[in-house]
Amino acid sequence: MWIRTYSTVWMIGGFALVVYMGHLYITAMVVVIQIFMAKELFNLLRKAHEDEHLPGFRLLNWHFFFTAMLFVYGRLLSQPLVNSVTPDKFLYQFVSSLIKYQMAICYFLYIAGFMWFILTLKKNMYKYQFRQYAWTHMILIVVFTQSSFTVANIFEGIFWFLLPASLIVINDIFAYVVGFFFGRTPLIKLSPKKTWEGFIGVSVTTMISAFVLANILGRFQWLTCPRKDLSTGWLQCDPGPLFKPEYYTLPGWISQWFPWKEISILPVQWHALCLGLFASIIAPFGGFFASGFKRAFKIKDRTSVIVYLDMVELQIEWIARW
Fold first, then answer.
1. What is the DSSP string of 211-260?
2. pTM (2 decimals)?
3. What is the dihedral of CA 98, 102, 104, 107, to 10 degrees?
4. What is the pLDDT of residues 168-194, one digit of tens each?
């Protein structure tokens, strides 16, 4: 219990620190997680005996990985990068040229990797090598397709990263609590501990939490302002209509019992209700996917593979933003 308590405090504290430091540090955190995810997933179908006969074959996986990273992040961060470079310097021209030919560079890097793969083919190893080639591409498609939504959300405003992530955490916690105390009817055979009572009860708590949390987070400009460059300072901006409070007069009978005559609601809170409902209904299937994946590959430890599978739930929620 103490080990779990310490690790929880350090993880929550570290995550809060990264969020506090801003957009670039959150993006860096996502990139680091991606690298460890890819490392674990690459090793999942790896066979040491076959790799002994294929020296340097593992480097090919990382060649495709960093090519995909250059393609995805080059497209997402091109404009912020241009905005961060002074126009009258050589660096600006270099960066502009790099962005201009980014697609061509990624294409030729991929072709180089393809040729590299063909040249490494060995007799009696074809099936293993082509299986690894297909597995690598599947990993890249799943990881980078989803991560593009993540990074795009971060630069649209930390709010759009933090709120969905928080809703998934809240959904998981209350699903366990409600299911533990009130769960009776099994929901799905893949996860025997999931119950209908927990599924329904957590929908209400997640939507309420989304409504309240959106009001709290939406009050901070450094969370709601989009980042247009790659600087690290705090932002000041016009919050936009979604984050400007609207005031509603309460009925007279409420004023008799409570001291409030009106309340302020941010328009984004109505959007948060939809995100909360989406998280409650759809996101648990990310957990079911993780359960099936662990059973299929007989994974029991909390490696970065499982962290990746948990992040699938977050990705489902982030996609709702777009």
1. HHHHHHHTT-HHHHSPP-SS--S-------GGGS-EEEEPPHHHHHHSS-
2. 0.77
3. 140
4. 888 888 887 888 788 778 777 777 777
